[in-house]
Structure to design on (64 residues):
């Protein structure tokens, strides 16, 4: 339950081909790839910013 088999993937691909046409599929895939890359880049930048803003253990120990 919850997994996609070969038959389901083929059916989804055929439906997408019928709905969007053969010329739009590569363009759509390219945009999805760009979106994923931007998302990953944003996550990485957010993590880097979070580490810079977080107080360090040494700073917490020095406070009275």
């Amino acid at each position: 339950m919850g997994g996609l088999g070969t038959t389901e993937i083929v059916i989804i691909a055929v439906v997408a081909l019928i709905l969007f046409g053969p010329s739009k599929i590569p363009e759509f895939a390219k945009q999805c790839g760009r979106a994923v890359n931007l998302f990953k880049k944003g996550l990485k930048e957010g993590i880097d910013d979070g580490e810079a803003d977080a107080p360090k253990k040494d700073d917490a120990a020095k406070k009275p």
Summary: The CA atoms of residues 58 and 64 lie 12 Å apart. The two ends are 56 Å apart (CA to CA).
